[in-house]
Batch of 4 targets.
Target 1
Amino acid sequence: MRNKLSNMIWGLIFIVIGVGIAGNVLLGWNFRIFFDGWWTLFIIIPCLISIIRSGITVGASSGLIIGVMLLVSHYININIDWWKLIIPVILIIIGLNIMFQGLFRKPLKVNHAGHVEGQNNTRAKEYSAIFASNKISVNDRFTGTILNAIFGGITLDLRDAIIDSDVEIAATAVFGGMDIYVPRGVTVKVNNIPIFGGVSDKTVRTTDPSAYTIYLNSTTMFGGIDIK
């Protein structure tokens, strides 16, 4: 359901743009794509969709608030250096996330429509890289995770992880990249929304019908994800 809703949002965005451009041509509308601060939508929209798909997380909510702040700065004349507010905003969101962890997050359900309905990874950990890099190595039981790379990079190493069930990785890469290393003997299935980005799956396919599956549900905008 969450994937369908996010796909509907992307679809509506492209429909609105198409109708606006057609209106300019046929009806003389004054529809403009490149308004002041238009580039902030490349931060706001993917983060909003990530929240819809995976619930409120530190990375997605930080990106959303930062994007909105930068957009508002183009229309409200306040003597504030908005860029200097980015770090305190992130710290506040992290603090709220620690206090109310799990209250707003939606449980992850692997639903490939593709997804296996009923997988409930409420214990999935979240990792973010915002204007930074983050390297994660898992050497115990892996139950899924949420990844957010916004103007940053994440490396997730699962080669020594214990995977004893189907799991989901929910990922958002905005002007950033991710490298995901998976162990041998698992199946990888990708459900990605690419906006000037994409996912490259370089894993060796397994022929074992009983192999567990890693489902990657992702949004990539001016960014990419490599699965190795």
Target 2
Amino acid sequence: MSSSSSKLLPIFSLLFIISYITLHSTTVEAQIHDIGFDWASSSSSAMSSAMMKVYYISYGALSANRVPCPPRSGRSYYTHNCFAAHGPANPYTRGCSCITRCRR
């Protein structure tokens, strides 16, 4: 019985290796086909267009993090156009009281 089992062990191990390689090669091919690459295409332009994508950042996205008013100008961050806004930046006035003694 040991001689027949010793003959079957290399056969089963070879079948296991072949099935493992076959399973993983089809998985890789499926993943590559999912991203749109075709193995049959031999032209370099098809390969470069499938693998290279160029992304741009718009000027609107770049200016989204910019604070519209100069720092320490007194204008609110939410002022639509702080250079066209007229009047004092902080028109806070207070009346005379016992604590302030009418001083500023």
Target 3
Amino acid sequence: MAADDLADGIVDAAIAEAEVVGWDNVRLRRVAAALGIDMAVLGRRFRDLDAVADAWFDRARLAMLAAVDEDLAARPARDRLYRLFCCWLDALAPHRRVTVDMLKHKMWPFHPHHWVPMIFNLSRTILWVRDGAGLDAKPPRREIEEVALTWLFLATLAVWSTDDTPGQQRTKRFLERRLADADHLVTLVCGRGRAPAAAGAGDPTTPVAPPAEA
């Protein structure tokens, strides 16, 4: 079995068990047995159950990045961000309860060794969102965007964690409203008392033009 296929199989088997017993009660020996592999084989691929959770969240990151294309680049920043956030959440939605359990497990007070990696993973996710959405502002606006996107991401995740509406409509309405609020704020703050800049210069509300062909 190829390494990537094995890793995917381990993640899928762990989630399948978690749907029955809960994430905290998943045992990697049972996952290995379900796949018909030695526990040592599993251990060479994942250091612990938290690493399996990280691989699950990495699927969401890749699903989000798969949405980055010329069509996305031609849309306003608010639409780009909405699409990327929704792709991330949609990738996790089939196992929302297990995903929420994973996050609770990471934040458990007696698991401080998970806290720092979780913070770095959050920061990396936000950087991928900014890059995928074509937000290329320079400091200090870049730092402001990162803080705002981090807040938006966490607030949206909190709503999503209890959202049992079809298609996660409650979460998506929340996200849409918050992005609209942010769009209005950017226009208010950046649109007053400044000489007009070149079209699109440093303004994440403008579409990102695709690179010109050589």
Target 4
Amino acid sequence: MGGAAADQPGSAREAPWPDPADRERVLERLIGVRSSKPSFYAAWREKSARLDRTIETLERISAALCVTPEGPAALCEAVVEAAGHHFRARWAAMTFADGLLAHELPPVIVHSGGRVGRAWDEAPRVLQPLAARALTSRRPVVAAAGDGHDPKAGCNEPGGAVAVPMLLRDELAGTLAVGLPADTQVEESDLSILLTLANHAGLALHNAWTFQESERLRERAEGASRAAERHATDLERRSGQLERARRRLEDAGRRQLLGQERNRIARELHDSVAQHLLSIGMMLEWCRKQEPPSSPILERLLTSKELARSALAQIRGVIYELSSVEQPADLPATLDELVEELRHTTDLEIALQTRGSPCALPRAAEHALSQIAREALFNVARHAEASRAWVAVHYGERSISLSVGDDGRGDPERLQRKLERAAHGGSNYHRGLADIAERARELAARVRFAPRRGGGVRFELTAPLEPPWSDGPGG
């Protein structure tokens, strides 16, 4: 009995464990999970990790497809980065075929090691033949590692590579490819994700291109609208200018007609009335020379001659006003006409000289100076018994000088006294000198008679260039 009792503990320690089936049932009762495979837990963990990565990839893909407003290039880079992240790829790339997108993008975009390349020489050598196979077959293409003997697949990299076609409205737009890490198995779900990403990328690229093109067209339309507004404003401005020009032309036409009529009247007065008055004065002068100093007719002849001279001066003033309304003042030309006229109506030999730089004068000033020169020359021709006379005009910086000299027998001191008395308004003094004094006062000018070197008398006038001249003819 004792021996039997002693044998029982030993026999209990040496009893075998239940069979494996019993152990699985015991495990099932302990954890509440039934497994048909010993490797279920490892597979489940791998599936769970892959699912988590897929969900994260979908989030990245969604974010990548939302880059449309930034343009096609930014969208491509985002899609390539999302594909590389899902496969934990050594590189990811997108290639483009000739078609809708080729003119907007580089031939290839490669994302590798944090860098982005845009040329074939920056891409893996396997990419170009792999992309060509995917485009030709229009299906996903998988190149396993070590297939370098196949020149079409040509993958001498540590891992394989996958490429899927990218379609856009049933047309091949390019491919999306990834370089797999070593010891990576490609499942159908991975190919489906890559193919779906490629198809959505093609559509998103087209949308991005369309959006970019619409933005470009919108900017062009806005630019055209702004240009049209500028053209409209410019057209309105030019229309206003044309209207003002039309009114100016009409005014100029009316002024031209008025000026032509004024000139016609001035020519008529000059050719008829003025010439007749000049002839009357010359005939009266001839008659005066024929009468003896004691003749009672002499005083009447002198009065008639003075009246004719005054009428001629008034007619000349009217002619000047009529003919110079639209013409700028030109004193040298006016004096030249005066000298030419007196050469034909008197026996004087007259010389005209202009010094300095002639400048434009107001009409009133030009007329006053020409009338003063006329009166001075008439006095020389009438009283000085001279054969020659000299007229000189000098334009200074701030003043203008007029001088009339002769080689006659006049007395400058006597003439100066007569001029001073005439300036005070004495009616019994020479009317010509009174006119000279009056016009000189209008010009704020200094006048004097002085002896001329070589004999004769020299009349001198100096007037400022910018006095408060009146706009009338000055008598």
